[in-house]
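batch_manifest entry 22 of 60
target: NAD(P)-binding protein
source organism: Sharpea porci
requested by: lab member K.T.
priority: normal
notes from requester: please return tokens only, no post-processing; we will run our own comparison against the previous entry in this batch. if the run fails, retry once and flag.
--- input ---
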Amino acid sequence: MEHKELIVIGAGPAGLSAAIEAASRGIQVTVYDENARPGGQLFKQIHKFFGSKEHHAKIRGFKIGDELLKEAHEKGVEVVLNATVMGMFAQKEITVMINDEVHHVKGDAILVATGASENMVNFRGWTLPGVIGAGAAQTMMNLHHIKPGERVLMLGTGNVGLVVSFQLLQAGCEVVALVDAAKNIGGYGVHAAKLARTGIPFYLSHTIKEAEGDDHVTGVTIAEVDDHFQFIEGTEKHFDVDTICVAVGLSPMAQLLKMDGVGMKDTRGGYVPDCDETGATSIPGIFAAGDVTGIEEASSAMIEGRMSGYAIAEYLGYMTKEEKDAKEEELDQSLDALRQGMFAPKNRGKEITKTEEDILISTNLLKHGFVADDEISRFPGFVHKAAIHPVIECTQNIPCNPCQSACHKGCISIGENMTSLPISVKESTCINCGMCVASCPGQAIFLVEEHEDEDYGLITMPYEFLPLPEVGDLGHALGRSGKALCEAEITQVRAPKSYDHTALVTMKVPYHYIDLARFYKKGDE
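--- output ---
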């Protein structure tokens, strides 16, 4: 039997973060992961993170993964890949298959950071090739550079469904629709809005009735459902597709903990180990962190991992309780900041009708994915100004503030509360640097230059599709709903390294469209 001081199961954001903190205190750490590449979900996440600077805000997931791996290597963490932990038993013992060999390993402490697996729903034809999980589509695109399909229908409008749909567009796929049995879109409004303005429709209170095809998907039929999720006859809608993506939630992979007899509990976040804030379970020396303890964002998983790392250091005698408590308090505040706002765990299942600022939520955003033109003016980021200025269409209380720190001229203010709606400061002077537009993870900031006396205006927007438009191109300006509004001419394209692959495209439109135009499509699209 082999012996390890600390065994970490899972080389994702939680497992690596815990391993780094433990190794920093002198603990010998071995991380086992069943995949051929460490980093967990981070290496599939090409979008920019929300939160604040301490939460890696405006940094893309795969870059965060690179940083964690580099730090783990520097701290001397041993990462064993293609290593599937098959069982966890009494006395902190595990069996792990490494390549084709089974090893019996005993640890002084064990951290389980196995993450979560995708849920699936049953419908007629759901086993046909071409029906895949959204995470599988992400793996194909972002790790293996393979298009999952040409025409795709997405089932699920939580953050995973919204984010992956946008990445499908970036990969060159056509997303024909987003479908959800719920009455409202489940993910961040800014994610939905950047899809809606490309013209993709949302079908709420709908779900899949049948996937069509003999040996692979060739089409799909959806239908509206009633309050009891029963199909309403006569509401069927057909789409020709070759791929159906399913994003209907995740389930914590807590089987190893249950196998070992760890106390479990059934929560809205899944069947999870009953552990404290540091991940300590009912069995001394066994800890859990990340999605295995309940589904949250990767930013939260990294903080939970760090907290577990400190708790393990105390358990193994490398840290005093006072030191651990001080670190835990600091991290707990950081974690609590991410758990605030409309999408906080405490608000799951609740109907939120107003923002923290007592502004009515956009009903159209919840139903159709975009804030209606007659609703946008009630939000504090939407202003008019003679000179160039930022217009911020962030309308939900999301824990995020990189736009405030990106602007060194004080044009944008959120304040101390990270979930407050951003304000476009009227008295400020914008210098058109574009950093706020490039830094916004939700792509919800636009620079508007009004020219009422010349009957035209300039709108600078974030753009993450290839090929980029070129100066002089003529195309169409699209509104928030994705509807073509008018002709538009490209006057400037900026893509410096500091924007981190978010190009800034400026289009010229008639003056009366400056409040409405929010996307550009080339003339032949």
